[in-house]
Specification:
Length: 205
Amino acid sequence: MPRKRRIPKLRREPLSPGLLEFLTTGDHWAHQAQATGLCGAWALFIECPLERHQLQRWQEHRVEVLAIHLRQAPGTRPWAWWRWSAMEPRRVLTGDEFLKPKTTPTAWDFWWRERFGVPAFAQIRPRGYVGVPSIESQAAYLDRLGLLADEERARLTPADFEAEAHDPFRTSEEELAEAVAGGGDGARVAQRMARDLGNRRTITA
């Protein structure tokens, strides 16, 4: 029986600006590429090619990253905290009828963990629906779960705890219906979008 190849841990390294940017925003590329050029951004992929390596870096630098982040943005948490430390997604206050259906308790966990706690919604605006869903703010989430320290809370205002509007819609049923009515490739694309973006009904002209 072949032996399972062991993937070694990375050697501990200081918290570089590029790694701090990644753990804070989840973005491998943007700011690091602007600061050091493509090679600098690519080096981050070489350093942390696997999720387990990225998790290792978060575990190594968690305290330092959180301290830096909280000085700049109290009442929120960095991307890596949501990715690996958060306990649950943020609550939907209005528009929960648009949530993606869950077939298992952990279905769609990958989605909210990659998006600062925002749950997975269907992405097609229904006919006649005006407005967008709302979710609890990061500050309200942290307060609800008892994760706000007194010093952090003192730096927040009532506005930080207000609901956040969230627009998940990439298209509308009316737009897709027009595409279906046009026939041809546009109709096929519209039906595929209806399936992929989470509409529960067949789009017809």
